[in-house]
Write a structure and sequence with these properties.
Blueprint: E1 3-7, H1 17-33, H2 43-49, H3 54-61, H4 67-86, H5 96-103, E2 109-113, H6 117-127, E3 135-138, H7 147-158, E4 162-167, H8 170-178, E5 182-186, H9 193-196, E6 201-203, H10 209-212
Parallel strand pairs: 1-2, 1-4, 2-3, 4-5, 5-6
Helix pairs in contact: 1-4, 3-4, 4-6, 7-8
């Protein structure tokens, strides 16, 4: 029986913090220009909820805005993130490329992310992750926006019976539990201790995965 590994993207493989602030600042500057925002950019508030689906982001950061404004804001933000990635301003965490290369020799690897498809594609292309990863799954394909359902889709489409979910937020840990998989929490930029305390394992360095699987 083959063990598979399912990775989150933001805050797990990809250092989203390197592109988050400039992309969010540019997005809220557009809102200011359109007289739809008058305060400073809520970067700290976003860091607290990093990893949730983008519709939830705008409901949280801009609850006073209409759905139309949320949709427009989401598109601006997505465009800014992709622009930052293609400019080379993002980065994988230390040890990610080497660890994925080693793991891929033995295990099927997948990504299950709350990021939207164009955003994931930009990261995959920039860092040539298709060298290591068998399949990429975006929350876009799950109407409910539920990470557990996304991981279930990865399992069912690829005949996965056992394996690991690796991520930095409670939704990743819950997705592992809900799908009878083992969870590995990563204590990186956006991780919160109270969200990792139910993980089967918690790591501080990506290469530690090699000692677990």
């Amino acid at each position: 029986m083959t063990t598979s590994l399912i990775f989150d993207m933001d805050g797990t493989l990809f250092q989203t913090n390197k592109i988050l602030e400039p992309a969010l600042e540019a997005t809220f500057e557009k809102l200011r220009m359109k007289k739809l925002w008058h305060d400073k950019t809520p970067i700290d508030q976003y860091r607290e909820i990093m990893g949730v689906p983008l519709p939830v982001v705008w409901e949280t950061l801009c609850p006073q805005h209409t759905l139309e404004v949320h949709n427009n804001t989401n598109q601006w933000f997505l465009d800014e993130l992709i622009q930052q990635i293609t400019k080379g301003n993002g980065a994988l965490y230390e040890g990610v490329e080497e660890t994925l290369a080693q793991l891929s020799k033995t295990y099927p690897l997948y990504i299950a992310s709350n990021g939207q498809i164009p955003y994931l594609q930009a990261i995959v292309e920039q860092f040539r992750l298709n060298r290591f990863i068998h399949g990429f799954y975006s929350i876009d394909v799950i109407p409910s926006g539920n990470k557990s359902e996304l991981v279930h889709l990865v399992k069912s489409e690829n005949g996965i019976a056992e394996g690991f979910v690796i991520g930095d937020r409670s939704s990743d840990i819950k997705a592992a539990l809900d799908n009878n998989l083992t969870s590995i929490g990563v204590r990186f930029d956006f991780a919160q201790e109270n969200e990792l305390n139910k993980a089967n394992y918690v790591i501080d360095n990506f290469k530690e995965i090699l000692t677990i699987v």
